[in-house]
Amino acid sequence: SKLTNLGHLEMTWRSRVHFHPLLVRILHKSRLRYYGKPEKKMDMPYQAYFEVADGSGMMSMVLWNSLCPEWYHSMKVGTVLLLAKYAIKTSYPFKTHPTPGDSQMKRFATIEISLNVRDPSSEISIIPEEMVKPEWGLPEVKYRFITRSELDDLPHNHSCDVIGLVTFVGRAERARKREHSEDFWLYRWAHAIDGTSDQPFILELFATSQPDVFQHIHPMTYLVCTQMRVIQGLTENPSRTVYLTTSNESQIFITGWHKGQPYTKDAKVKNFIRWTKSQSEADQIKRTVIGGYYPFPRPPDSFIKY
């Protein structure tokens, strides 16, 4: 069928009601959002957004309501989609934006693709990777992996991806989303090493829409975290307090989930795997810890400093 592209959509969307199909690749995926309220009677008040791209650039795509339980888990980073009967809306201005792996990619920020059950009823098809043709010109998923030795020099709020061997994972803890609120964030702390520094990555991992991964982070697993944010210099001694926290677009993967993921081709990931093969598993297991309370950033040694 006749296809359009994202660049052409941005130029012509105001003058059309019906749009030609789109062929795009998912580059980023947000966590699933529940926006139900007791006074509003909605069957499936869910929303998730994705950043999708073709040869012309990148745009947000929003999945609404009952399409979320049907499609959310099938739509992975790297998945190629054929979209028809979608709607185009002006972008929601307060949405968070992931940092693209390819800084040269054009971003179409004024509009977004909206996929709904009705008005119109969107048609979504997943194209298997072996059927994707090079002439379609779809961009590859790119990452921004860093090593632990590079972390201390990165600015506050910098976006990056990391891979490491888990040496510590804390218990799940809760924090109120707002004061006096009944809603909580669920999170846990983890340490991961990659052989480039004596210090581990300190990771604050909030529960994303991957409960099966979040609950099974154990010592000695290979952990990949994407779209992490650097939190730098909370005290006078910044080297002790630099850590990474998840963002709205973070994805977490552990041993058993890596096969077929786009990051397996990344040079820094391959270097890490080479390093792990040179390590003694018995030595690493002796240094691992699980559970317990983890105060961070650590309080000073004495009350006077406190």
UniProtKB/TrEMBL annotation:
Superkingdom of the source species: Eukaryota
Pfam families, alphabetized: RADX
InterPro entries per record: NA-bd_OB-fold, RADX
Record-level Gene Ontology MF annotations: single-stranded DNA binding
Name the UniProt record assigns to this protein: RADX protein
Recorded name of the encoding gene: Radx_1
